[in-house]
Amino acid sequence: MNPHFRILIIGAGSAGISVASRLLRQSSAFRHDIALIDPAEHHFYQPLWTLVGGGAAKKEFSKRDMEAVIPFGTHHIQDAVSSFDPEQNQVHTAQGQTISYDYLVVAPGIDIDWQGIKGLQETLGKNGVCSNYSYETVDYTWQTIRNFSGGKAVFTHPNSPVKCGGAPQKIMYLADEAFSHRGVRGQTEITFNSANPGIFDVEEYKQALEKVIDRKQIQANFRTNLIEVRGEEKEAVFENLDTGETFTTSFDMLHVTPPMRAPAFLAESPLAGEGGWVDVHKHTLQHTKYENVFGLGDASNLPTSKTGAAIRKQAPVVAENILALLKNGPMDAFYDGYSSCPIVTGYRSLILAEFDYFKEPKESMPFNQAVERRSMYHMKKDFLPIIYWNGMLKGVI
């Protein structure tokens, strides 16, 4: 007999676990009637990887066994989804299971497309080519920075959505400061090649970050996308997204933010909208076609930055609106597009960007958050991990 659950959640990342925890906290009736499908054995607090790459944290602190973070009363099905059948309220898995549900929450996260840049996989982790975007490769970023003796340091931002849109520049600011501490900054040329049209989308923070770039003497080239890495030759090939022309630059260090995409099993499903992301209403997070399906997190088509802070605001909306439907009531929970990006600008400084769908600041602190502050750096480094493990994943905040 095929298993059936009242609530089936795809993805045991921060989004899926947060929703499960909130539902269990709000009603004991869900105990043992919620299932999380995810093939992973470990859960990662990925925002820490910027600091790991900058030598300011240990990557081991970002990793926990999946069973340690799955909320009590939730089934963990360690399998991968292969397809969705929303007409029949079923999902099919790689191991041949068919699992049915009353309500489906889709939160599988975002896939990193390492193969999307020619030559990257072959040279990643050597030849000065590094990336903070995996647990396996993040150590080499710090190894490259601390052994850097001068030359060209190039940092990239791809022509795709990415998790935490500020992360590609954060590691650059840490590298700049590390080079200064080691006395090699004067012999170093730092370049930021970004596919975006500017350093940040929200005007207030954009102006502040432009001052950071000017102060640090970083050359920023926008509408510029990495398409090939030649590791042995230490060359990177970029395309100009406005003209279509390509150019090649040499490097001594290359930090790559790889392109990212919706998971294939989602992109090819009836739940997907444009770009392959789960198609949901931007305020209720309910699917635009299937009333018993909700989506949130990096895999959703919500027009805001893909960050953990956004998920922290989305999870309560999903949980409350599912509860409302179960009671045949109106869905009153409302998501306004809130997202946040703590932009590390040095080892003791940070700009806390918070904003909504309208790209207007939506700040939570009683001061100007477009100013670099040491207190905000320590909030990210020392307090946010605690809040994540002990608050967000447990459905408390």
Automatic annotation (TrEMBL):
Protein name: Sulfide:quinone oxidoreductase
Keyword entries, A-Z: FAD, Flavoprotein, Oxidoreductase, Quinone, Transit peptide
InterPro entries in the record: FAD/NAD-bd_sf, FAD/NAD-binding_dom, Sulphide_quinone_reductase
Cofactor annotation: FAD
Pfam families assigned: Pyr_redox_2 (PF07992)
GO molecular function: FAD binding; quinone binding; sulfide:quinone oxidoreductase activity
Entry keyword annotation includes Flavoprotein: yes
Native source organism of the sequence: Salisediminibacterium halotolerans
Ranges for domain FAD/NAD(P)-binding: 6-126
Gene Ontology BP terms: sulfide oxidation, using sulfide:quinone oxidoreductase
Gene3D superfamilies: FAD/NAD(P)-binding domain
Signal peptide (from-to): none
